[in-house]
Amino acid sequence: MTSSVNLLGGGGPAHRDPDISPAGTTGTAPLPEDVVARNAELVEEWADTLYDESAQNIMEWAREHAPHPLVMTMSMENTVLAELSARHFPGLDAIFLDTGYHFPETVDVADQVERRYPDNRLTRVRSILTTEEQDDTYGVNLYRNNPTACCRMRKVEPMAAGLSPYTGMIDGLRRDDGPSRAEAPALSLHRTGRLKISPMITWTLEETDAYIAEHDLIVHPLTTQGYPSIGCAPCTLPVAEGQDPRAGRWAGSGKTECGLHT
């Protein structure tokens, strides 16, 4: 007769070590060597030039110079990337990372994006396990007990798998988002050899809001209720005026990044 061990501690049922991901695809398919080499050359040649360029110019650079296909990664905190694509890079695919823990408002924004931008094929990337299966396998509230493991399994690994068809990604990263992003480049080489392109990198929150208002974009309702940065519902709190926009993410845990941009 074998005995089970609770790898998370305590006297409850045995659960898997959260450092061990569930079986399934958790990585990104490798790119051909010539594409990786070309991407590295582009970063070497253009990163300094694009560092403080406008979003319009960065999007048009990506359309003209980057190996295709590229994909937008959208958190649905705002829909600026979809609008930039419609104006400067029509038909660009999009990925929405559906963690299973989103605010209902975030999922509703994704639904609206599909209707407003039908030329941008939106793929909803999901984790190997549902939230209920994760509770059964790793214990309830993993997002609280081990937020790094939860982010890895519900964000980093699904996104890694979702990027496999693409040679690069276009994201909504901004230096204004917080100290950990203050010197982020507009163009860099992702650890998989793919291009990482951030057209909004120089934008402030105020400039982002102004663009949304100017073009009558879809507005995530929580951004008007004290949530300048929106992640999973259990791990996101509103912030006080003047605070770091990401101060409400993983509040009280010391965690500042999910791992997608590190």
UniProtKB/TrEMBL annotation:
<protein>
    <recommendedName>
        <fullName>Adenosine 5'-phosphosulfate reductase</fullName>
        <ecNumber>1.8.4.10</ecNumber>
    </recommendedName>
</protein>
<feature type="domain" description="Phosphoadenosine phosphosulphate reductase">
    <location>
        <begin position="70"/>
        <end position="238"/>
    </location>
</feature>
<dbReference type="GO" id="GO:0005737">
    <property type="term" value="C:cytoplasm"/>
</dbReference>
<keyword id="KW-0963">Cytoplasm</keyword>
<dbReference type="InterPro" id="IPR014729">
    <property type="entry name" value="Rossmann-like_a/b/a_fold"/>
</dbReference>
<dbReference type="Pfam" id="PF01507">
    <property type="entry name" value="PAPS_reduct"/>
</dbReference>
<keyword id="KW-0408">Iron</keyword>
<comment type="function">
    <text>Catalyzes the formation of sulfite from adenosine 5'-phosphosulfate (APS) using thioredoxin as an electron donor.</text>
</comment>
<feature type="binding site">
    <location>
        <position position="150"/>
    </location>
    <ligand>
        <name>[4Fe-4S] cluster</name>
    </ligand>
</feature>
<feature type="binding site">
    <location>
        <position position="232"/>
    </location>
    <ligand>
        <name>[4Fe-4S] cluster</name>
    </ligand>
</feature>
<keyword id="KW-0560">Oxidoreductase</keyword>
<dbReference type="InterPro" id="IPR004511">
    <property type="entry name" value="PAPS/APS_Rdtase"/>
</dbReference>
<dbReference type="GO" id="GO:0070814">
    <property type="term" value="P:hydrogen sulfide biosynthetic process"/>
</dbReference>
<feature type="binding site">
    <location>
        <position position="235"/>
    </location>
    <ligand>
        <name>[4Fe-4S] cluster</name>
    </ligand>
</feature>
<dbReference type="GO" id="GO:0043866">
    <property type="term" value="F:adenylyl-sulfate reductase (thioredoxin) activity"/>
</dbReference>
<feature type="region of interest" description="Disordered">
    <location>
        <begin position="1"/>
        <end position="31"/>
    </location>
</feature>
<dbReference type="GO" id="GO:0019379">
    <property type="term" value="P:sulfate assimilation, phosphoadenylyl sulfate reduction by phosphoadenylyl-sulfate reductase (thioredoxin)"/>
</dbReference>
<comment type="pathway">
    <text>Sulfur metabolism; hydrogen sulfide biosynthesis; sulfite from sulfate.</text>
</comment>
<keyword id="KW-0411">Iron-sulfur</keyword>
<feature type="active site" description="Nucleophile; cysteine thiosulfonate intermediate">
    <location>
        <position position="258"/>
    </location>
</feature>
<feature type="binding site">
    <location>
        <position position="151"/>
    </location>
    <ligand>
        <name>[4Fe-4S] cluster</name>
    </ligand>
</feature>
<keyword id="KW-0479">Metal-binding</keyword>
<dbReference type="GO" id="GO:0051539">
    <property type="term" value="F:4 iron, 4 sulfur cluster binding"/>
</dbReference>
<dbReference type="GO" id="GO:0004604">
    <property type="term" value="F:phosphoadenylyl-sulfate reductase (thioredoxin) activity"/>
</dbReference>
<dbReference type="GO" id="GO:0046872">
    <property type="term" value="F:metal ion binding"/>
</dbReference>
<dbReference type="InterPro" id="IPR002500">
    <property type="entry name" value="PAPS_reduct_dom"/>
</dbReference>
<comment type="similarity">
    <text>Belongs to the PAPS reductase family. CysH subfamily.</text>
</comment>
